[in-house]
Amino acid sequence: MGTRIEKKHPACLWMQAGVVKKKKCASDFSCMTCRFDRSLTKVCLENEQLRKKGVIQNGKKGHLVFWTEKLGRQPLSKRPCIHHMKGHIDFKTCPKSYHCSDCEFDHYFFDQFKVYTKLEPVAFNRISGVSLPVGVYLHPGHTWVKIEDSNTVCIGIDDFASRVLGKITAIKTPLMGKPVFQGKKAIHISRNGHTASFLSPVSGVIIKINSTVTKTPGMINQDPYIGGWVLRLYCPKLKHDLKQLMFMDSNQRFMESEVARLYSFLEKETQVSAADGGSLGRDIFGNLPKISQDRLKRLFICKNP
User: Fold this and answer.
1) How big is the chain by its Cα radius of gyration, in Å?
2) Quick check: 291 and 188 in contact, CB under 8 A?
3) Mean pLDDT (whole number) for 160-166
4) Alpha-carbon distance 78 to 85, whole Å?
5) Nearest Cα to 229, choosing from 136, 101, 141, 305?
6) Which are the contacts of 262, defined by CB distance < 8 A and separation ≥ 6?
7) Collapsing DSSP states into helix, strand and coil, what is residue 20?
8) Residues contacting residue 152 through CB under 8 Å, at least 6 positions apart
9) pLDDT in tens, 49-84
10) What is the pTM of this model?
């Protein structure tokens, strides 16, 4: 006999706002098809019309207000974005008092442009010790893109850059809900006072920031493509942006060229030849302190397509 697993339903928006004490959502927040939502909306509209006439109905129904109105009275810090209430994103405040039609973030989130492709890295190539996952797109500034679902992607810093700059001690990004733009600075890392900025490989709106990485930036050095991702973006023009990036064989050729270029640079600076078939170390800047980080950044990080 099979075991029945009861599906857990999230709290209804009216309950999250504190208008009703207990109500679960069984329609995946499809409020337009929800009888409960229609019923409360009807009562709230009646109450609104009566209040304009100076009349307040007796009983509990007379004090019902729209959930958006209830939350709109709260200070900004206690006014969650509807996409957080629906479980789409981590906490983000609503600066528009739930006038979503005026909200740039909401426009990005529900843009009708779709990319019907889902790619996941299934294996890693190794180029002189540098890991390069199959199935990601690369930007020449050493950031990567992994498509997660439809218009949603994860982005981060590649293994080559983490090896060149060494252990990252701090990271800074724009706040959730903010837009980033392809080829513009989006991820800022620090190492004991030395800083470097990385360009966003695609344009989009930040819907999640990897809190593990913000607390432990060294995760990028240890696991740059899985645990060390930095931002999750909603990208309405993803298909267009991906055309500007490298993929598959182009990734391989690019990384081979970058490794060869770095070896050539190091040989010239240190007068020591790199052994054929050798592996790139994990902290170029830290092991060669006489080399300026500004030069390393200028030559290998801050590059546009």
Assistant:
1) 25
2) no
3) 88
4) 12
5) 136
6) 160, 164, 280, 284, 300
7) coil
8) 207, 232, 233, 234, 235
9) 888 888 887 888 888 999 999 998 999 889 999 888
10) 0.62
Q: Quote the tokens at residue 279.
A: 């592996």
Please tell me the distance from the alpha carbon of residue 132 to that of residue 130, in angstroms, as a whole number. 7
In one-letter notation, the amino acid at residue 201 is P
pLDDT tens digit sequence for 209-258: 999 999 999 999 889 998 899 999 999 889 899 999 999 989 999 999 99
- The upper half-sphere exposure of residue 289, i.e. CA atoms within 13 Å in the direction of its Cβ, equals 1
CA distances from 126 to 21, 134, 278 (A): 56, 11, 12
pLDDT at 277 over 50: no
CA distance 132 to 160: 9
12: helix, strand or coil = coil
In degrees and rounded to multiples of 5, residue 238 shows phi and psi of: -60, -45
Tokens describing residue 61: 């129904």
Distance from C-alpha of 142 to C-alpha of 303, rounded to nearest angstrom: 9
Distances (CA, A) of 111 to 150, 182, 291: 11, 18, 46
Gap between the Cα atoms of 231 and 80, Å rounded: 20
Phi then psi for 299, rounded to 5 degrees? -80, -35
Enumerate the domain spans of the chain: 13-109, 113-305
Longest dimension (CA), the chain: 89
Lookup: tokens for 268: 């010239």
Phi and psi torsions of 182, nearest 5°:
-55, 130
Pair of tokens at residue 131? 């890991």
Q: Tell me how far apart the alpha carbons of residues 291 and 136 are, in angstroms, rounded to a whole number.
A: 31
- Among the CATH numbers 3.40.109.10, 2.40.50.100, 2.40.30.260, 1.10.10.60, which is that of 113-305? 2.40.50.100
What letter would DSSP give residue 188?
Answer: E
